[in-house]
Amino acid sequence: MTTAYFVQCVISFVVAIGSVALGVIYLPIDPWVRAFFAVSVLYTVTSTFTLAKCVRDRQEIASMASRVDQARLDKLLTEHDPYKVDA
Fold first, then answer.
1. How many structural domains does the chain have?
2. pTM of the model
């Protein structure tokens, strides 16, 4: 996942929330506006799931890098023998 994709997900989420807010503010009992509201809610739900997936993927990448570093350190520590004498 690239930084650009993550930013796109965040922007998509913000646009979705903004469109729902505008839909709620300007919601007379008009079928066109109701349709706008329905599409905005649908867009908000889908972009919320996308944003959640992006955040989860970033967290998994960070924890995997941490685990790899920990494994390297563990290997170095197990291979080190403080009592070994080089002759």
1. 1
2. 0.48
